[in-house]
Amino acid sequence: MKLFVNRKIKALFCSIALCMAVFALSSLLFMAFEVQHSALYIAICSLCMSAAVLALCYRYFREQHQMMETAISQIAEYLSGNRDVTIECNDEGELFRLFHEVNTLVSVLNAHAEKEKSAKKFLKRTISDISHQLKTPLAALTIYNGIIQDEAKDLPTIQEFSRLSGQELDRIETLVQNLLKITKFDAGTIVLEKSLEHVYGLAETVKNYFLFRAAQEGKEIRLSGDETVTLLCDGIWITEAISNLVKNALDHTKEGDFIQVEWRAFASVVQITVKDNGSGICPEDLHHIFKRFYRSRFSKDTQGIGLGLSLAKAIVEAHNGTIEADSTPGVETSFTMNFLTPTKL
């Protein structure tokens, strides 16, 4: 039987069988020699045998419990990030077969993790190379486009087309930059340098960056919140996330609309919200807007490239935060970022 492959189970059954044999032999001897008070002696022997069997079973199951606890602690350590743990399985039996299969599963998972890590690094290097290769011709095209605009001051048609080509070059440059940033997050090569930042200062930086565009388009950027609120974060990347949300709002609003950046501090959360009163998002799109290159069939936007919201989500999640969107078409759209505040226990 496979049950007796395990030497400890075999030893347990042999010990119990030995106890029973000793008890049976003792009982036969007491009865054969008609020992006085033999019934009492047999009862005592039965109690001794029962105690011995219980002690053997207790010892066996205690050892089994200790092995299971060790295996559980090893699995917990693996889940916490230690990829080098293994469960000792140097014996025969069903339980050790299970441990062996767990070790095999760990090896497979480690192999997949290494393969995925290598794939991400390769993707990062590839896109990084492509991005750097594109930067040089883009810079040259931007310079050429500026020269054309200067030389065609008296030619309104050429001026208009050069202005439009300049806008498209800016879009391509933004796409290249965002691709490079988002692949860095994918590959896990981003190191966040966190410090206490005033949320007002981050929002003010974003507002100043988009102030000229907002003025040109007849839109207003508003800031609202307590200037003393601070957030433990990488200021550069959080500014990038807020900027992407503000740019998205500018892309989906018209002249006379507003974009508002507001923030609040709760007991354990700092919340930053970017909202506008623009065209809004259709309900069927809300669950997809953070996907890369996602474009709604209802969208009239001709400026977006579908990476800004994905990058904002990656930045927020790298800070162990969450981001969610809410919208009423034609009324209001809001993007809310929640960041946990570290607490000292």
Instruction: Kindly report the oligomeric state of this protein.
Output: single chain
Q: Approximately what portion of the residues adopt beta-strand conformation?
A: 5-15%
Structural class: alpha+beta
**So what's the overall shape?**
elongated
Unreliable runs: none
* Quantity of strands, as a count: 7
Please tally the helical runs, counting DSSP H or I stretches of 4 or more residues. Answer: 7
Radius of gyration: 36 Å
In N-to-C order, the SSE pattern is: HHHHEHEEHEEHEE
Task: Tell me about this structure.
- By secondary structure, this protein is an alpha+beta fold.
- Helix content is 59%, strand content 13%.
- It has helices at residues 7-32, 38-79, 94-151, 156-187, 199-216, 235-251, 308-318, and strands spanning 195-198, 220-225, 230-233, 258-265, 269-276, 322-328, 332-340.
- Strand 4 and strand 5 (269-276) form a beta hairpin.
- Helix 1 (7-32) runs antiparallel to helix 2 (38-79) and helix 6 runs antiparallel to helix 7 (308-318).
- The radius of gyration is 36 Å and the shape is elongated.
Lay out the secondary structure.
Layout (H helix, E strand, L loop, with lengths): L6 H26 L5 H42 L14 H58 L4 H32 L7 E4 H18 L3 E6 L4 E4 L1 H17 L6 E8 L3 E8 L31 H11 L3 E7 L3 E9 L5
Parallel strand pairs: 2-4
Antiparallel strand pairs: 1-3, 4-5, 5-7, 6-7
Helix pairs in contact: 1-2, 3-4, 4-7, 5-6, 6-7
